[in-house]
Structures are given as structure tokens and as C-alpha cells.
Amino acid sequence: MLDIWKKLRGEKPKSVVEDRGKGVTILVCGDGNEVTVDAYAGALYTKDSIRSSLTGVVRPLTKDGIRTLNIRKGKTAINVVTQADLPLALHQTLALSETSSANALRDSREALLRVVRANFEKGKWGFSDGAANFSADITDNGFKQKLDSREIGFYKGDTLRVILTTTQVVMSEDQTFHTKYEIEKVIEHIHAPKQQKLIE
Predict the structure, then answer these.
(1) Residue 111 pairs with which residues in a beta bridge?
(2) Whole-Å CA distances, 89 to 74, 75, 115, 166
(3) pTM, full prediction
(4) Residue 147: Cβ within 10 Å count
(5) How distant is the alpha carbon of residue 160 from its chain centre?
(6) Helix/strand/coil for 29
(7) Chain centroid to CA 150: how far?
(8) 139: closest CA among 124, 149, 128?
(9) pLDDT in tens, 91-142
(10) For the chain, which domains are there?
């Protein structure tokens, strides 16, 4: 499954073509990358929860100093993932982690955020804090597991009380500012008055 993830860079396929006669599935992404796999593997990879889990497996590669991830079963190496295999979103995380701490400002605080866009494709959600809209990663695994198992659902206008971490970096090359938002913990899910459902 990791081989499929590496080939498609963790993206959800734009199209899925089944060849029932040969028992294979062709997965095609928006950038033209495609891979032919057996039907069972293809069906698994199209699930948001599976791709999210695979992304979680390789996330250590975004940490400074970790460049190769060896996947083993016992003493046998079954796969290798490198930083070159990471999708763009994780490369941006890597760039921030490799930036000198002297040029970075990190702040964590409790916040109330209105859900503007729920997104399971690449981990980015859209939020509003009442003053501005921004995108953020949700890294609270407990919360994500509840979503995957459909223990919780969302309606338009729902609010989350969270621990929000903001990392602001001044890039040494061109002195441009980059800001990364991360939801480290979802403390409370506050439902809006009942409206059209966004997520089951």
C-alpha cells in the first residue's frame, strides 16, 4: 500500500478505472500520475482513512534530521520511504522544521474556531477565528479517529474549542514570512443550530 501512496504522493485519485476482466484498477491523480494495482488494493487506497493512516506513518520524515524511514517486518525490510517521496503539504512542514529556531516564533493558545471547510483530502481544514480565515492541519489523532469511525458529524457553522499552535517563520533566503497553523487538540465540539449536514 505504501508503494501506491509513494507513486501518487498521498493524493486521492481523480479517476478510478476498473478492468474487471483483468482484476485490476487504474488510479489517476490530477497531475497525471497513475498506477495500476489489483482491485482490492485500489479499493483500499481510495478510502480517506487509509490514506490518512499512511500519511501518519511517514510523518516522522518531516522532523529535522530524519531523512529515511525503513519499514520492517521483524528483521526484514519491506519498504523504504525518503523525503523525496513526501507530498507538497508535508514538504512545507519539513521546510518549517528545518528553519533555524532563531527565525521562528511558535505560540500555542486556546481558541474558538468556526469550521468553514471540512477537508479529508490532504488534512487541511478551513477555519475562521472571527477576524480572518485560514487553513490548518488537525493533528489530534483521537479526534480524527472519531471522524473516521463516524462517531461525530459536522454541520455548517459548527465551532471547535481547540489548542491552536501558530508557527511564524522568516525564511533566511528571501526574508518572506510563512505562517503555519496546527490544531493540536480538539477540546470541545459545539454544534450550530441544525442546518444542512456537511459530514456524516
Answers:
(1) 162
(2) 31, 32, 20, 16
(3) 0.47
(4) 19
(5) 18
(6) coil
(7) 18
(8) 124
(9) 555 555 554 444 678 888 999 999 988 876 556 788 999 999 998 988 888 8
(10) 2-89 (no CATH), 100-193 (2.40.50)
